[in-house]
Amino acid sequence: MFKKNWKKIALSAGLSLTMLTAACGQDESGENGSEGSGEGNGSSGEESGESSGDQTESSVNVGEAVDYTITGIEPGAGITESTSNAISEYDSLSGWEQNSSSTAAMLSELRTRYENEEPIVITGWNPHYKFAQFDLKYLEDPQNVYGEAEEIRTIARMGLEEDMPGAYKILDRFQWTLEDSESFLLEAQEKDIETVAQEWVDNNQGKVDEWINGVESVDGKEIELALTPWDSERASSAVVKLALEQKGYDVTLTPVDPSVVFEAVANGDADGSTAPWMPKTHGSFYEEHEDNIVDLGPNLEGALTGLAVPTYMDIESIEDLQPAE
């Protein structure tokens, strides 16, 4: 249903980087790195002093071991910009550098160091399969440089509920977890997304039934969903496509730039999307079009970014690191 001019919109090379902007400031609990809450904080007396001394020594060793370098991704990514801000804001990162190369290079370095249980500090975001493949944790971000937790929402065009009540209901009900998404993405490293989506639906039909039960079947009614070309959104859209197809819908998935997702749904050129990251990443696009779209709420909660390290590293916070001398 996209007009031809929409189909001709080129996807810029920076789209995958923009996705990482999506991860700008998300945490499962709303505060980066709360998973590693710094056990022992608040202890007093001799025990506290010993802990602090051990932590300082460990922190210095971490900095030296990683050559005071954060292993990052592409230079234009949002998380790269946030990490540059973190280096400026945190005294503990004074003199540190960010190695901005590529996501593939970061993952390769992570894999090598992880297999040897060597220290590494990376720019992390999820949903991403690395959190399913490796035991990682976010470092606490007391200054909230990476922002608050985000959620991925579903939006629909005005009038969809009246035109296609069944599809609207399925989109409104669709919800899965961070664990669902990341395990899916890990499987998709070995198979194409469509194959993994079918396997996921086959293995989780009970959950799919919660989305489609009571929805009247149709005979080939066409519906088009816009999505960003990021793997996490390709995954969710592929799953929703199969759920809609179980009720007879003919589904088209169209990957476009994030700004186009909102514009297309607002203009009625697309029927909906499960791709918007809110409130920060796509907040400006949402504000521009919110009067002309229907917000169906979150389909995934706990999307986040920040500095991440393997869990075998004895460090909990960005402030535990020590500046380069």
Q: Your description of this structure?
A:
The protein is of the alpha+beta class. The protein has two domains: 21-148 and 306-320, Glycine betaine-binding periplasmic protein, domain 2 (D-Maltodextrin-Binding Protein, domain 2); 152-300, Dipeptide-binding Protein, Domain 3 (Dipeptide-binding Protein, domain 3, Roll). It has 14 helices and ten strands. Strands 3, 4, 5, 8, 9 and 10 form a six-stranded antiparallel sheet that branches. A two-stranded parallel sheet has the order 1-2. Helix 12 (231-245) links the parallel strand 6 and strand 7 (250-255). Helix 9 (178-187) packs across helix 12, helix 10 packs across helix 11 and helix 10 crosses helix 12. Mean pLDDT is 85; it is low at 7-57. This is Glycine betaine/proline transport system substrate-binding protein. Residues 44-59 have a biased composition (Low complexity). InterPro entries: ABC_Gly_betaine_transp_sub-bd. Residues 26-60 are annotated as: Disordered.
Key descriptive features of the protein:
325 residues; alpha+beta; D-Maltodextrin-Binding Protein, domain 2; Dipeptide-binding Protein, domain 3; 2 domains; two-stranded parallel ribbon; 14 helices; 10 strands; 17% strand
- C-alpha termini separation: 59 Å
Largest sheet: 6 strands, antiparallel
CATH topology of the largest domain: Dipeptide-binding Protein, domain 3
Overall mean pLDDT stands at 85
Q: How many independent structural domains?
A: 2
N-to-C order of helices and strands: HHHEHEHEHEEHHHHHEHEHEEHE
- Secondary structure tally, helices: 14
* CATH architecture descriptor text of the largest domain: Roll
Overall shape: it is elongated
What class, by secondary structure content?
A: alpha+beta
CATH class type of the largest domain: Alpha Beta
- Give the % helix: 40-55%
Q: What is the H level of CATH, i.e. the homologous superfamily of the largest domain?
A: Dipeptide-binding Protein, Domain 3
User: How many β-strands, per DSSP?
Assistant: 10
